[in-house]
Design goal:
Structural class: alpha/beta
Number of strands: 23
Number of helices: 10
Bound molecules: zinc ion
Length: 490
């Protein structure tokens, strides 16, 4: 009896000790991140070309096996990077959707970590127990055009059965040849996802996809769930409440679902939104920390003790966020006053070579939006929405406008300034006012979904807020969230 008790205590202490160790490692990874962050990939619009020097560097390193395993439709190489000697095979692929690059960046951060000269014991534990295989940017043609789909115009993630895309065929071929134990399917999701019934964005969402309509849980899927529970506990430390869990309805055409079926524990990670992080660099860091910690826990086998039922405790994903939510404004229509909420989305519009973007905003919804949330929220009760006016003066050029003057115009209710001639090719401006041609007539305010939100908010005969291209400008001087207005050609 005594011996049993001692044994039990020992086991308990070992378990407690290993989880404390993992916590330490996670904290150390978080703290030391900047040392390993790959500096050449600092914006979301990254192209295949930018990855090649990083990949080439690994070719001469004997630790790595670097193999071209396929080609995109437009002929860009798909490269598999492998490292480690362990019996457990972990396969990570990113950017199957061309406009979802966050994890591609994190993969190169992880590779920098593996190449560094710190964390020696941890790396030894990882690489002697695991062989890691990375396939970054599975859809390079999509990345080139910063678009979800591949050059064939299909969603590779609905091609697991037909296998019409060379990218999909490559993914299946690599999965089959490795017969990987774990597969990390790395994506980005809309920033408008939130953790169900909270205002918290789903900065990271997870799914252990089902492998049949019954959503059965076998050991393969169960292991994916356990690793997800572990990663959730890490994200909760750095982004409390900002994790969502995807609906697990079976999608027979999707790769995640099939990879689970083929015997690889498939873990879907979706990078969503984080307040004030448009280039998702904080989310990239969370990818790095949580994936590396997960790899470590797989190497140690510690995930096995995690209770499966904790998976269901992760809040579900919902899609209830706006960039800007304006609550309870007063709107006069045909002589009657109404009270409305407005929900505003800011869409990214790419420049010609998809290296940069500007925002073009729309009213996404209006009415009672009490079940929705905003990254930024304004209580506009008591404020009346008024159409912005066109400034009477005709200006020569954008350069002849000063920001301080523009602020005065906004306070006077002007949200449009006319130019003698519009600068050719330019579609946006950093000035917080819409730029229009000389014949432009101010629109009659007709609030509706789909319109560009440009107006002012008035209370006690004073204009206190302007909304220009969906950006809220507090006329007391704070315009910290403002990015761009539009140059309107009509
Ligand atoms: Zn995706």
């Amino acid at each position: 009896m005594k011996i049993k008790l001692v044994l039990f205590l020992c086991l308990f202490l070992i378990a407690a000790d290993s989880s404390a160790q993992e916590n330490d490692i996670t904290a150390a990874l978080y703290e030391s991140y900047d040392q390993f962050k790959e500096p050449s990939l600092n914006k979301r619009r990254i192209k295949h070309k930018a990855l090649q020097p990083l990949i080439n560097r690994l070719m001469s390193d004997p630790k790595y096996t670097v193999k071209v395993v396929g080609e995109s439709i437009e002929g860009r190489d798909l490269t598999l990077i492998s490292i480690g000697t362990g019996p457990t095979s972990v396969f990570l692929w990113s950017q199957m959707h061309g406009d979802e690059p966050t994890a591609t960046q994190a993969i190169f951060d992880i590779i920098n970590f593996l190449n560094g000269d710190t964390f020696i014991a941890e790396k030894e534990a990882i690489l002697s127990n695991i062989t890691l295989h990375f396939l970054p940017m599975l859809n390079p043609d999509g990345a080139e055009a910063y678009t979800r789909r591949n050059r064939l115009g299909i969603d590779i993630n609905r091609d697991a059965l037909m296998l019409q895309s060379p990218e999909g065929r490559t993914l299946k071929m690599v999965r089959d040849s490795l017969d990987a134990d774990f597969g990390f399917n790395l994506h980005d999701q809309s920033t408008y996802y939130n953790a169900e019934r909270t205002e918290k964005p789903a900065t990271i969402s997870y799914l252990a996809p089902a492998y049949n309509y019954e959503k059965d849980i076998n050991e393969v899927r169960g292991n994916a769930m356990k690793v997800i529970v572990f990663m959730n506990s890490i994200i909760q430390k750095y982004a409390p409440g900002q994790v969502g869990r995807y609906n697990d309805d079976f999608e027979p055409r999707a790769f995640g679902d099939n990879i689970q079926k083929w015997g690889t524990s498939a873990i879907l990670i979706e990078s969503g939104g984080y307040p004030g992080d448009p280039e998702k660099q904080e989310i990239r860091k969370l990818n790095y920390v949580s994936i590396l910690s997960a790899v470590y826990t797989i190497a140690k086998g510690n995930y096995k003790n995690i209770p499966l039922e904790d998976y269901e405790k992760i809040p579900e994903n919902d899609r209830m966020l706006f960039d800007l939510k304006i609550e309870g404004l007063t709107y006069t229509l045909l002589g009657q006053e109404y009270k409305l909420d407005l929900g505003i989305h800011r869409s990214e519009v790419d420049n010609a070579d998809h290296s940069n973007f500007y925002y073009n905003s729309t009213v996404a919804d209006q009415g009672d939006l009490s079940t929705f949330y905003g990254y930024e929220t304004l209580d506009a009760v008591g404020y009346t929405v008024k159409s912005g006016k066109v400034h009477p003066e005709l200006f020569k050029s954008i350069e002849s406008l000063k920001e301080s003057e523009v602020f005065k115009y906004l306070k006077q209710g002007y949200t449009y300034v006319r130019l003698e001639s519009l600068p050719s090719g330019k579609k946006d401006t950093n000035l917080p006012i819409q730029i229009v041609s000389k014949d432009f007539k101010a629109p009659v305010l007709n609030l509706r979904a789909g319109m560009n939100p440009t107006f002012v908010l008035e209370k006690d005969n004073e204009i206190q807020f302007a909304v220009v291209n969906g950006f809220l400008i507090r006329l007391n001087g704070d315009k910290s969230n403002f990015k761009n207005a539009l140059i309107l050609r009509k």
